[in-house]
Amino acid sequence: MSDEQKKMHILAISAHAGDQELTAGATIAKYTQEGHKATFLHLTPGEKGHPRLSPDEYAKQKIEEAYKAAEILGADVRFLQYKDAEIPVNDEIKYEVADVIREVKPDIIITHWKHSIHKDHANTHKIVEDAHFYAALKTIERDLPHHYARKLYFSENWEDMHEFVPEVFIDIPEEAFEAWVKALSVYAFARGETYGFPYIDYYKALTVVRGAPVYFKRAQGFMVPRGGLNKRLQWFE
């Protein structure tokens, strides 16, 4: 996996800053530590999720946290200009995401599962599925040429658990695990300083739960678009 011709690029697309860091960040750290590339694309900062700060104040904080977390994980980060809790599902945003896909040319895309208690997560799933398709079509003419990301995975989020059944399990080594926990600790919400949910403890424990049945010390679980997989993997296929 270390030869230059085998380097890959992961694009993790989330509704809010912090979503994919929580759910796929350990996997991304594993990849970047092996010399692969990763980019986070956040459709919003998630600025309406603080009980004491205004959305403008919290947006500034979340954006700063996102850049710090991405640096720890060895990834780049981008934002689209949408508002928390107001992500639309239309061709405008789908083409915006498709344009990013064409620009950064990922091999792998990770995003939300479709069934969620959070509207933004469910909408992001729909947006990314179509953006993945639009980006790949040569006959859709945009500023940049078409690009097909060969794999699409859905990460495990506690808000997206209805009918989520992990099918691919990625082994998480110690060094990647430590970087991931450090990155999560950058986010105030992950530390439990907004509404008190113990995000870091929850997701750390989840890596043990997902790893044990497939004989990994720790793992992160993912779904695929059409199911049918149940694989114990060192790396995404």
From TrEMBL:
Pfam hit, one: PIG-L
InterPro entries: GlcNAc_PI_deacetylase-related, LmbE-like_dom_sf
Domain of life where this protein originates: Bacteria
Gene Ontology molecular function: any one: hydrolase activity, acting on carbon-nitrogen (but not peptide) bonds, in linear amides
Gene3D superfamilies per UniProt: LmbE-like
PANTHER family linked to this entry: N-ACETYLGLUCOSAMINYL-PHOSPHATIDYLINOSITOL DE-N-ACETYLASE, N-ACETYLGLUCOSAMINYL-PHOSPHATIDYLINOSITOL DE-N-ACETYLASE-RELATED
Protein name: LmbE family protein
Species: Paenibacillus flagellatus
